Fold these 4 entries.
Entry 1:
Amino acid sequence: MKREGQSFGTSPAIETKIVNSSGAYFWLGDLTCEYDEYREPKAGTYELVLKNPDSKTERTLKLMQQNSGQYALSVRNFADMVTIENIRVESQKEDTTVTITLVSLGDYSSFTFPEMSINLMGKRLSADDIAMLRVRRILFGEELPRYDHSSVLLESMIINPSNAKIQVISNLLRILKEKGYTMEQIRGKVVEQLILTGTLQEIEDLTFVVENGVIKKVCLQGYRPKYYANVEPTKIEINESVNI
């Protein structure tokens, strides 16, 4: 029985969101926004169609093209290093359509150099073991205890992988979340990091379980580069409870 002046609190509602795709977001270098169409007209050529992009996005794209730079592209579960071949702008009355044509810098799906293993404190760590440490560094910022010269070498192998096309970024989830990016944008950047650092060749699943805006669980399934035709690539799996 409820007495006068007594109240019973109710638990706040928990809003759960499952993020298992990057939505319509893409990353091109430091630029990220939504696309309306994505096409691959031929191998190594990609097209992004933006309808009515804001003036800042148009200006940034044109500057990137003028700089003739090499940029990391991330879209869906895919990432590649590209150059901007062409930007076509078409306007009709109130509508503007921008088509970005990107060209791959090469076939990064074939990783030429098998990575090294290392002996640490009497234990052998394979290239796949080191890749797992790198995945955890990228996602969660996990640091290694320092023991001896071998641990210094291991640290270098984690942050400077031999097949990387971009620099490894530590603690990426927290960094991007604190900058206010959406969960889909964060997911897209993680795809870029995992693939273009040479850590994974293919991502089968990357899911965030989000409660009231907080990442509570990260699930990853992906495959390492396949170095030898007769050896299946190693599968990397993570199911981690977090609070980010």
Entry 2:
Amino acid sequence: MLSINIPVFNVEVNELVLELVQQAKKISDLYEINIYDDGSEEVYRSANRALAKFPKVKYIEMETNQGRAAIRNRMGFDSNYKNLLFIDADSKIIKEDYLSVFLKNAKPNRVLCGGTAYQKQKPVEKEKVLRWKYGTEREAVSADLRNRKKGFIITSNNFLIPKQVFSAIHFRENIRNYGHEDTVLGFDLFKKGVEIWHIDNPVEHTGLEDADMFLRKSKTALKNLNYIADEVVKSDPDFLNQVYFLKRFYAISKWIPTFVLRLFYAVFCSSLEANLKSQNPRIKWFDLYKLSFFSTIKNREQNVHGF
């Protein structure tokens, strides 16, 4: 019936797994929970090893870090049941019927995206406000809105995919750096005619990074997105038109010369980061921060290639 896959890196997942066990037992005996540790520190491994005592829980430790794409592929290929549910380790189950909602909506040629939620209260720690505010305003949106606006975009933190589909279309392991490996998976599914359907069945994202870390990861993801667009999908029009950030960047570039965006980043980068690391970060400034940084990436690439 259901293989639940939780890739783990430096997260303790006992509470998450116990809730999933309780829900799964109420539905069927035909389930498994696979926990693959992808090179965590020993303190997290020690905390998670006890989960292997549960009859339908498999806990495996990788000798070396496999990467986000490879670890998920290995879990999917190793799974025994026809539906694969992937959940990020820094998730909290917030619905009592979480598993049953996925199974009720499952179809053979359909990928289901459950969505993401965030805590209602603003974090006390100033360093975590940016990640929380961005998630609350941009990620925690209704399934109706996601279905109307996101196209082939999926998020790998909370999605269900038939094993038959995953066996044929999975994460591309040549994408080693952080960011947008799930965007490419959605693109590949879309190209093969697989339905991507968003439902209101979120998990709460509990792993709020500090602003410094979130900004670094955002820039790494943008570099990876540029690489994917240019080298992996070879500037495929469907990809450029449906990835919202790229569509917006190229639309703005028609009206604002890219050197203006680069100059803006060079002059105002420090001021923008000061705001984004404050108690009241402005997400519109974050949008501009990313757009101007991406323009800088593109310029460096053109200089390297002699354009």
Entry 3:
Amino acid sequence: MADLHAHINALITCARYLGAQLATRGVNEGPMLRFRATAPDQVFYIIGAGASVNDLSEADCAMIEAATSASINMAALLPLEVDITSLELVADAHQAESIAANLQSRKKPVLIWYQDRAKHATPHWERLRRQFPVFAYKRASVSVRKRLETYRHIFRTVMRPRLFDGADLRVSFAVTGSLARLTLLGCALGYRRFCYVGIDLGSTPYFWQEATGLRGAAPWQDKSGLYNPKPSVADFQTGPAVVPSFHDFLRILKAEGGQDLSFATLDPKGRSNLTRFLRDDLNKA
């Protein structure tokens, strides 16, 4: 019965993937293809909004800026030159104005990676869309029914053959959030080495909630009051509400994606929960 359940949900996932491909058939992959890996030792940096990002040195920042990097949502407000900015819901005018001002101040042109969904098409987002280049993708939701073994089966039979060689950049498998989707984007672009920065998984406040920010920047002022709750570790732990968790996702990706896949953090003070997970679990000999 378990095998039948997994096979049925694999077929559902495959149908969703094909539907997303059909919906994006007119999207030009060219703007994203310029970020393809050209050597096996290149690192794909993924930057989040955790406060550990404030601990980076200028040398750390320069290393990220010299490589290919992508920020997630509110990390677009950091004083850091990245190549790709992943944005989903832009909830209010203050957030949109702050992101626009920061992106306009950068020397490196940025490509916004945007999940094209009707609920994300706010007036605030539309203003950003008109100001910056956008690569819009569709999500193909993975049907797991809160069963980890079902996800493992779907990863092996449906996702893995479509993630690496000749991956379609216009579609992303979705079940574990934007952090996992950006990791899958890096795989699709040919990267085998990943470094997470400011991905603290609830162990720190957000970067703008500390007195001194990255590169000595003043904290971003949340005028709308929407962005000041402290992140919760429970949001990122394994539980029935999220299958797979990000930890499970990395375990499966490493097991199924090849021995040359590697994952690390840039976390000078060791404040990130992800640093501890990689050290004590995923990368443990």
Entry 4:
Amino acid sequence: MTADIHSLVGAYVLDAVDDLERAAVERHLRECDECRVEVGEWRETASRLADGAWSVPPPGLRDSVLAAVATTRQAPVVVARQKARRPHRSRWVAAAAAVVAAAGAGTAVFVVQEQRVRDERTVAEAARDQEAEVRGVLAAPDVVLRDQVLADGGKVTVAYSRLRDSGVLMMSADAAPTGGRVFQLWTVRADVPVSEGVLAVGETTVVKVLHGMSSASVVGVSVEPANGSAEPTRMVADVKTI
């Protein structure tokens, strides 16, 4: 058996040979018991690697696997006068390890891509849900709209419906707070301020759905340190809803 034929055994199992190479390997397999055993071991390994690894193979995985197999050189057979089983298992294990490494890398990329898709889908669904709630409040027959100018420029508008027990806070500030400070949203319920969210540094606009408006007497905006405060320290708007 030549080194060229022997080096094609792994590619043959993975169906990565052309018609001439396939014919040459199959002709050789009819004459070589040991290569037939090696082909069987390769097929068993490939089957185990594929079992339950992923539901949809990631793009490019086949090319990366075949590239790993191509660069894992299988040593030529040493033909002895006495019949003995050649020590091919170490070569088989090395080649299988290359396949595992390539498959593992492809799986990691696939998992990251899947997580990104799930995250983007979650964000999109949340945006659609909020849009539906905003439209519902604004279309309510008892909707009330109140607005107020922000202390540092800009405007905050509050729309609320007692029938839906919900409201919408819409803010557009002329400028972001300086010194790394941020806007924080509030409602006041039973004289206790309740945080309704903290904007990011530099953020100047927001549309926020507020639930349980039947218990809120004030909707406000304050300027706070990054990450917000437990209680408002500098109010720039306080819209009364009662």
